[in-house]
């Protein structure tokens, strides 16, 4: 009792002394062993604590607190299986403790087993109905699997129980943002920061939410604050509260963006280590094609976006276009079948299509390795639905990042990034962790020649009146999501509108909550209200066709039009774009170059951007000539030649494998279309 009193007062060393005295008096004193273990653990003497818990369990194998405490140590050591067996042993002897259920839920979530995690949180709340932490944890789990309305209910319930719980307000804000209630999200983030001013997650997420709706008050001050937060977190090896996908669109130093990605990559390695897999054995490093042998390269694509998603809209034909004499394709789907034509097409055209959405990450990695994959492609990167821990387990000898994430993964276990010379020049290689593979022309593939030929049919064209667009105005357009905009580009657009008589700017409600703010901002810059036109987001086919109703597309330098850029060029709409340094700021320029007309659309400064847009608008014959030439090259230029692009990608894969076979480390290389040895290793 004296030891326990000391422990409660924070006199841990005294508590340890008295617990040991109690054990000297009675060597079968269970609670003394368990409590001594807790005290020892608190002062970092974990091995001694482990010994105490085991002593207690040797006297009473079903001691619930000792089992739970032992499990907690295993959890901290990333020994998830051992921890889970301790918690389950606890629950076999008592169902009155909430901690084992809570900790089991954490393990299930780490392994992607969300249904069992929710069942455990249900038990926590059965035992403690007023546990606000339990409600927030269950809400977080609901949110991760897309059950946002249930998450919102749990967060609100937690706030009703504990109104000062800043975390509940911040998580409620995140759920509101995911469900499109942006103004409610901003209000909840601000409430969280009122309750806890030093709350990096809320500060960073509030900034991103404000960006999404173009709320730019105190923008520079907030970015400085967030950059300071990131730098502190990176320096102390804490997972940054700015996600890599957000960092690509922020005006932060590219080297800092690389550090953010590195921290997230390391976090994926920690998740992978919890599965405690033995190192994988790989296929022998032998060329698959040479004079005496003609084998095939086994290539695996891992993605959560085989379905109705921009990735499948762009890459739909790629998986079936691979030359089956040279490449054996495996697609591993991380998401269940969404029943769409996009999913069906990939399933039908890919040589092997495996739905692994219900499997744990370690089982997926084992399957990939058993399939003897030689080159494994990560089509997600840091995007929704990714399971990058699979790549951290390194089931294949060569691992590659492509398409899903336009930036560096920062991962030591990703060897190559497939890109091109314009998007990722070798002079910028210091902002990438991967070795750069430069495809000819443009790295960004599309499927329009196969799936969107109707756009070229003159009998299927829309009219401006179909969308309430003015027939007599010169229409500039930007169909990018609003988070890609910033005051500098919008001020430039306002200057352009003021300099070009009878002009308008066509934007999308992407999201709708940004419309009112942008209209007010434009008016404050002296732009007439009817010069700003908003329309709703349209379905893919309609979106591409109606793009041609504009006269000139204005790109966002901070984060370019990627899929949207490909859409508008296929529609025959020229653009003005200004590349910066990071990958996401250079994609539109690469798209333009691959049409053969890039020099007429790419500028090198904001002043030149404004002058180019104004001069094209005021010189209609010059703009019409550019538009006509762009429309004329759509069926012949490299940008839309998917088959040619796939052959070049195969050249890249064979080069990667042959470098591996020669015993060299991965290195930067450029793919040559006139490589006549391909696919043989001579």
From TrEMBL:
GO BP annotation list: protein O-linked glycosylation
The O-GlcNAc transferase C-terminal domain, residue ranges: 213-450, 462-649
InterPro entries named in the record: OGT/SEC/SPY_C (IPR029489), TPR-like_helical_dom_sf (IPR011990), TPR_rpt (IPR019734)
Any one GO molecular function term: protein O-acetylglucosaminyltransferase activity
EC annotation from Swiss-Prot or TrEMBL: 2.4.1.255
Gene3D superfamilies: 3.40.50.11380, Glycogen Phosphorylase B, Tetratricopeptide repeat domain
Enzyme class (EC, first level): transferase
Signal peptide boundaries: none
Pathway stated in the Swiss-Prot or TrEMBL entry: Protein modification; protein glycosylation
Matches recorded under Pfam families: Glyco_transf_41, TPR_1, TPR_11
UniProt KW keywords: Glycosyltransferase, Repeat, TPR repeat, Transferase
Family: Belongs to the glycosyltransferase 41 family. O-GlcNAc transferase subfamily.
PANTHER family: PTHR44998, UDP-N-ACETYLGLUCOSAMINE--PEPTIDE N-ACETYLGLUCOSAMINYLTRANSFERASE 110 KDA SUBUNIT
Protein name in the entry: protein O-GlcNAc transferase
Lineage of source species: Eukaryota, Viridiplantae, Streptophyta, Embryophyta, Tracheophyta
